[in-house]
Amino acid sequence: MERAGTAPDIVTARELGVIGCQNCSHVWRAGTRECARCGASLTARDPLSLQRVWAWWLIGLICYIPANMFPMLSTRTLFLTSEDTIVGGAVTLFAHGSYGISIVIIVASVVIPIGKFLAIAFLATSVQRRSLVPQSQRHALYEIVEYIGRWSMIDVFVVAILSSLVQLNTLASVTPGPASLFFALSVIFTMLSAQSFDSRLIWDLESDAQKGSGL
Amino acid sequence: MTRRMRNAHFSTQGDGLDPANLIVCPSCDAVFTVHVPDKGERSVCSRCHTVLIAPRKRAGMHIITVSLAVVILIFAAAVFPFMSIDAAGAHNQVSILDAALAFQGGPLFVVSLLTAAMILFIPMLRMLLVIYVLTPLVFDRPPARNAKAAFQASERLRPWSMAEIFVLGCAVSLIKISDIADVALGPAFWMFAVLVVLVVVQDTFMCRWSVWNALEQPRTS
């Protein structure tokens, strides 16, 4: 069976002296600046890619802190007003016996975002220094991060639905808290961080090692 | 039927160095010789398994019809009642637009704009762009003005179209409040659920490589 990442007959565009358009996969001679087919700009490897990854990553992480400290939503019933943070809300739900839903919230709002921060940091450092994790696995991780990151937005949508729906005059009302803004921004910034990552870098070290040259 | 194909159809051997015959995997930079698979089959990168070419029979027409249906459904779903709640005599009913605009007061309004964009406007814009790009191609006309920019925009917006995540959000909210109040789903919810399926269908018919190829060589496709 062919094993991805170890196939010796793979030639990369850079080795051939050509550039592939990442938008429409057309091939151009090295040095071409713009793809004449689709108009996207061409880069053999974007030297600023990692800097952008880390910049977005850091802003995303900074936004994630207030997202967890401020209340996500506040619930006002007849006699009392309660404010829930992301984790606090999930814990309350769990205590009330809604195990499934509290797990969904915890996974979407805590596990996925933190996992994503770790995964992007790992991918970015792994292309800066040699990694023992095979390329194919790191590429799979990258695809998972790109696919799953958007799903964190679910918590913001839940707050949107609850705070528009639960408006029952004096009986009960739900209003969104400031954490919803920080959380939404954190998800968006980490998505931009993942999109900035040039996945071709994952495969470079292998090719460079075979040719005996450094990065 | 979609059959997975590996590097049998792609070869880096030989000296077909004419760029027109080559394709580069956008994810891992591996170079292959172009071999367009049969309709319904797909060619994947032998190194990282990214799908490179996946043509479908009469895909253009299918995509256009599905996209039109999605546009209509988004319009309808935005304004029809979407969920209603009853508790101890109090009643409230909202549309999806109400839900998106629930974040009010100062900076939180940004979240309203983002939510409305992600669940309504971006999905709709993507569909309109695709219709605009594909309609002339399907009828063997020259590409529409700025078709390339339109198609590129539609591709860039793909990750920001989050209708399907909103549907899961509905399910979560439903369970969250169903034990304290009676919640009923309105027609807009079901329209939205259908719309999400149609967006997935549209996506499986879409072969980006074929569209770029057709935009480059109009009339011959």
Distance between the terminal alpha carbons of chain B, to the nearest Å? 22 Å
Oligomerization state:
heterodimer
User: What is the beta-strand fraction of chain B?
Assistant: 5-15%
Just give the CATH class of the largest domain in chain A: Mainly Alpha
Q: SSE string of chain A, helix = H, strand = E? A: HEEHEEHHHHEEHH
Tally of individual helices of chain B: 7
Query: How many whole angstroms does the radius of gyration of chain B measure?
Result: 22 Å
What are the segments of chain A in which pLDDT stays under 50 over at least 5 consecutive residues? 1-7
Helicity of chain B, in percent?
40-55%
Shape of chain A from CA axes?
elongated
Summed up, the domain count of chain B is 2
Instruction: Summarize the amount of helix of chain A as a percent range.
Output: 55-70%
Q: SSE order of chain B, as H and E?
A: EEEEEHEEHHHHEHH
Largest interface here, residues on each chain? A-B, 71 and 72 residues
Structural class of chain A: alpha+beta
Q: Give the biggest beta sheet of chain A.
A: 4 strands, antiparallel
Going across the biggest sheet of chain B, name each strand in turn.
Answer: 1-4-5
What class would the helix/strand composition of chain B place it in? alpha+beta
